[in-house]
């Protein structure tokens, strides 16, 4: 069960922005330069902080490293995705390895997805 959003979520999101993973940093460098669609990074919503989020498209992009395949993470991700879907937000999960392989292609696909 997700926790309720607290006042500490904005500072938590700010901290996560400073500690972004390499794939997230590579994507952000590309996404912040484009002016087609507004995509936020490490955006707090409800009990979660989303890696990337387009409010206009109601879509979030989660960059998943290998940790998302371990322990209870798959189940936690399912609960998170369900909660976000109940809020009308589509979740698109992208493998970190795909971002590292071709960040420009992934960024372009993210922008296209926001426009559909």
TrEMBL record:
Record-linked InterPro entries: DUF559 (IPR007569), Endonuclease_DUF559_bact (IPR047216), Restrct_endonuc-II-like (IPR011335)
Pfam families according to UniProt: DUF559
Domain of life of the organism encoding this protein: Bacteria
Residue ranges of domain DUF559 in the record: 12-113
Matching PANTHER family: BLL0828 PROTEIN
Name listed for the protein in its UniProt record: DUF559 domain-containing protein
Organism of this sequence: Novosphingobium aerophilum
